[in-house]
Amino acid sequence: MIIAFVITCFFYLTLVLELTVWHIPSVATSGKIMSAKSDLVSQYSDKYKKIFELSKSIKIIIFIVPLVFIYVLHLYPISIIIDFINGRTQSSLAYYTLASSIVLLGRIISLVYIFKIRKENEQKDDKFRLHTDSVFRYSRNPGLMSLYISFIGFGLMIPTVFYWVCLFIYIGHMHFKVLMEEDFLGNKFGSDYISYINKSKRYL
């Protein structure tokens, strides 16, 4: 159980740093979809421009309501820390070790991805360049894939239906945003991005 506790603390520490100090901005966040700034919208294809034209209430249902489940998903593993503090153990050492290893693998991939990007540029104010080497040779979305891996690991430690419902909502929600971002990047980088897509996988 101590392994799960340490890895969970490490997960939250690095995740907080990733979301604040090491934050890598995206062009398809819920906030940017809600604000629909013309300089970003203009770089999408017509089918995605229609998303920005939806009424505010529809946008809230599609892009804001799922965030409730996503935030719950991100906070759910805190129960592992609470169980450790209260001396509760729900599974065997081998099981926790396996699940913790999966969580750690996801975090390592995420840190490699972050340091790779920030070493070359800070990715601020939507001024970014196309990354196609290092971890990006194997996945176009290594940061997102790494979170999926970590949450699957936590899912093994927290085998509740509600947790997995939240995880599937998260994956579906983010997949749509990935499709939006790919459309944006295809329009921004043209043939270079198309060539990159043909040589890489969306996730793994």
Overall geometry: globular
Number of structural domains? 1
- SS elements, strand count: 0
Which residues sit in consecutive blocks of at least 5 with pLDDT less than 50? none
CA-atom Rg in angstroms: 18 Å
Number of helices: 10
Give me the secondary-structure category.
mainly alpha
Structure in words:
This protein has 204 residues and is mainly alpha-helical. It has one domain (2-15, 26-199). The chain has ten helices and no strands. The chain has helices at 2-19, 30-35, 38-41, 46-52, 56-75, 78-85, 93-120, 142-157, 161-189, 191-199. It is globular, with a radius of gyration of 18 Å. The protein starts with a helix and ends in a 5-residue tail after the last helix. The mean pLDDT is 88.
Layout of helices and strands, plus pairs?
Blueprint: H1 2-19, H2 30-35, H3 38-41, H4 46-52, H5 56-75, H6 78-85, H7 93-120, H8 142-157, H9 161-189, H10 191-199
Helix pairs in contact: 1-6, 1-7, 5-9, 7-8, 8-9, 9-10
Summarize the structure.
The chain has 204 residues and is mainly alpha-helical. It has ten helices and no strands.
Main attributes of the structure:
204 residues, mainly alpha, globular
